[in-house]
Amino acid sequence: MNVFENWDQWKNFLGDRLNQAKQQGMPQETINKLAEQVGDYLAAQVDPKNEQERVLADLWSVASQEEQQAIANVMVKLVQNNGTQS
């Protein structure tokens, strides 16, 4: 199963990447900027595979740049306690 098809697997995947970045000393500001870039990529290139991803894609598509930054920051907070390495 693709991680994009299951919301919990997707959150765990993102949580693992977040934990790796923090362990390597990446600053929170850089993590937040990368999260925004990932959001831009997903919105442009990936078809949502579940209801949660569809909601995020719809919100992203109508959000201003500042709102997209806020969505990305909230996603970082959401997944920071997820992942197999937490």
Automatic annotation (TrEMBL):
InterPro entries, per database record: DUF3243, Uncharacterised_YmfJ, YmfJ/YflH_sf
UniProt lineage: Bacteria, Bacillati, Bacillota, Bacilli, Bacillales
Pfam families in alphabetical order: DUF3243
Protein name as it appears in the record: DUF3243 domain-containing protein
Organism listed in the record: Heyndrickxia coagulans DSM 1 = ATCC 7050
